[in-house]
Amino acid sequence: MRGQQIASVALALGFCALSPALCQAQDETSGQVLTIQTNVGTGYNCGRASSPLYCYGIPVNVGTTSSGNGTFWLDTYVTGYNAGTGFVAFNGVADLGQGHVTSNIPTTNSSGQVTKLVVNFHGATNDGDSGTYTGTMTLTFSYYYSAGGGGRGGGGAGWRFICTGGNLQITYQ
């Protein structure tokens, strides 16, 4: 009896060696939705207003915890021939790997500054189960003008922008 159990385990391990994708744990199910909130407090400074719209390290909360669950980096074009392209890279947010922006819809103020941005994207999970996801994020921004700093390393004058809030909805495929 013990020999049969050992043989069964050896056969299963051999099968997994030939087809590892079938033997990895699937921790998300197709159609499962993950809701993520930004954790920016009164605002997260994204730096200089630029094209592409670039905001590195926006902190987020996943689920019900409010202590933070990682960050993401958004880099996307909102104007020009490559508008609606770019990427979103997650750092420590569930099992989300880098995503590719498929479209975005900017809302601008009278100065042409993006005050709201809806971004659609898709990507792969990073937990080894070959999972994929699609996502939509909605972010809000405000702007301020900085006259620049003096001394060594002081930033020059220009518009800076702040992420003031937002959310993401991820749907696993």
Overall SS class: mainly beta
Share of helix, binned: 10-25%
**Termini gap:** 41 Å
Number of domains: 1
Mean pLDDT: 84
Question: Could you name the ranges where pLDDT drops below 50 across 5 or more consecutive residues?
Answer: 5-26
Strand element count? 9
Tally the helices: 2
How does the overall form come out from the CA principal axes? globular
Q: Which strand order do you get reading across the main beta sheet?
A: 1-3-4-5-6-7-8-9
Key structural traits:
173 residues; mainly beta; 8-stranded antiparallel β-barrel; 51% strand; globular
Any overview of this molecule?
This protein is mainly beta and 173 residues long. It has one domain. The chain contains 2 helices and 9 strands. It has an 8-stranded antiparallel β-barrel with strand order 1-3-4-5-6-7-8-9. It is globular, with a radius of gyration of 21 Å.
